[in-house]
Amino acid sequence: MAALDVRIAAVNVMLQMQSDGGSLTRLLPEAQSQVAEKDRALLQVFCFGMSRWSRRLSGIVDTLLTKPLKRKDTDVYLLLQLGIFQLSHTRVAPHAAVDTTVAAVKHLKKPWAKGLVNAVLRNYQRREDELVSMLDEPAALSHPPWLLARYKKDWPLRWQEIVEQGNLQAPMTLRVNQKQLTTDAYLEKLKDADIDGVRVDAVPSAITLESPVSVQSLPGFEQGWVSVQDAAAQKCAMRLGDGAGKRLLDACSAPGGKTAQAMEQGNWRQVVALDQDPGRLARVDETLQRLNFTSNYELHCADASNLDTWWDSTLFDSVLLDAPCSGTGVIRRHPDIKLLRRDNDIEKLVAMQRRLLTNLWQTLAPGGHLLYATCSILKDENEHQIDWFLQQRSDAKAGQLEQILPGEQGMDGFFFASLVKS
Ligand SMILES: C[S@@+](CC[C@H](N)C(=O)[O-])C[C@H]1O[C@@H](n2cnc3c(N)ncnc32)[C@H](O)[C@@H]1O
Predict the structure, then answer these.
(1) Which residue has its alpha carbon closest to ligand 1 atom 13?
(2) Ligand 1: residues within 6 Å at CB?
(3) pLDDT at residue 2 in the model
(4) What does the mean pLDDT of the chain come to?
């Protein structure tokens, strides 16, 4: 089958995201298999860029169209956004951006749209500064109004910085498997492979790369020397302790970044990892095998909050609840969150987090430690959640709390709270 035009493939991904709410993580691999191999990276740049800048791009297109397009012509509307994205945010030469976008119209079988796309893109080139100055706040900042309102309420002095960071691309950070080699030894391996990277302060296992590379080009990736994981997430195992002789429950474990890290950095007697999504749980197994862990772990596909379905009543010394959350701390890595999440999702997530916290607390031994973590920066999912829990449980005491905001030391936004059972 002939390869699909990369611009049309990008439009299709965005159309599908709108129609069935699919994420880029799910939609992109399938779309990449439909374009020529040389276009796969470009397709990713287009889909991430169109998601990241969607609100701004549609604000500009709306101003430039003399009358709105019909719903059935959303493909043309998205192609216009892609053209403007290339002109405003890529190094594609402007004439090439316009020509290739106009040329892509033929695949839509809407000959009337060719002149429109040409006119709109040329008009944009002439009026760029004026058009940008006319945008309302959500379009200018390319964030949905509900999220801006929450950021302003939760972070009155820092919301602008958060938004700015949310529109950047995240760096690629590695976690060196301390069971196999030291971080310094791996830095040497990277140097030999001509890959530049630097250590991250206060996260001993982390190396941030100067520019992203494919995992296949990382020395020793298949042998399990290294994994890809943001430095903020790597703070998790540091908080779980050395695990010596203890049992750990990782209640929401997939795809396994923190399970693997806990096993690399601790000497747990046993690790039990759960996830309710079978496909994602399979990835935990793949990861642990790549990292050469063959024993002292168990994987169960289960709803962690439904103890009757998986728990044998043996208490755990430590519980990690890396809870399902809004992902607002990782928007720079998953810009589609800005398109897919709705304000009323937060309330549902808060309820789910409370159910998980309340039920998992029962599995923790007295004197044990539950680490609650989210990749959210919304207080309702984080510190308010901990306040609520402490009011419910007289046997819970709060230990260390940490909120990392996106971009701090280059890290993702993350929240950790330690709860100790008396
Ligand atoms: C934030 S992700 C976990 C990331 C993982 N800890 C890591 O570091 O790779 C949340 C996970 O929770 C799972 N999940 C959501 N609700 C759950 C539940 N009730 N029981 C078990 N797993 C659940 C989701 O399938 C998802 O894989």
Answers:
(1) 252
(2) 252-258, 274-277, 280, 303-305, 322, 324, 356
(3) 87
(4) 97
Distance (angstroms) between ligand 1 centre and the Cα of 303 equals 9
Rounded distance between C-alpha atoms, residue 79 and residue 13, angstroms: 12
Q: What is the largest CA-CA distance in the chain?
A: 71
Quote the CA–CA distance of 165 and 43 in Å, as a whole number.
Answer: 23
Of the residues 47, 252, 325, 375, only one is catalytic, namely 375
Through-space distance between the first and last CA atoms of the chain, rounded to whole angstroms: 64
Q: 292-347: per-residue pLDDT in tens?
A: 999 999 999 999 999 999 999 999 999 999 999 999 999 999 999 999 999 999 99
Q: Tell me: the pLDDT tens digits for 364-409? A: 999 999 999 999 999 999 999 999 999 999 999 999 999 999 999 9
Alpha helix segments (H runs only) across 177-256: 183-192, 231-240
Q: Domain limits of the chain?
A: 6-142
Per-residue pLDDT tens for 31-68? 999 999 999 999 999 999 999 999 999 999 999 999 99
Taking the domain 6-142, which CATH number applies? 1.10.940.10
Residues 238 and 216 sit within 8 Å (Cβ to Cβ): no
Pairing of strands 297-301, 364-374: unpaired
Residue whose Cα lies nearest atom 10 of ligand 1: it is 324
pTM for this prediction: 0.96
Q: What are phi and psi of 304, to 5 degrees?
A: -60, -25
CA proximity to 252, closest of 400, 355, 174, 335: 355
Q: Tokens 């399979």 sit at which residue?
A: 282
Looking only at the bridges linking them, the beta strands covering 270-275 and 297-301 are parallel
Residue 1 has pLDDT above 80, yes or no: no
Tell me the CA–centroid distance for residue 325 and ligand 1, in Å. 9
Distance 304 CA to ligand 1 centre (A): 9
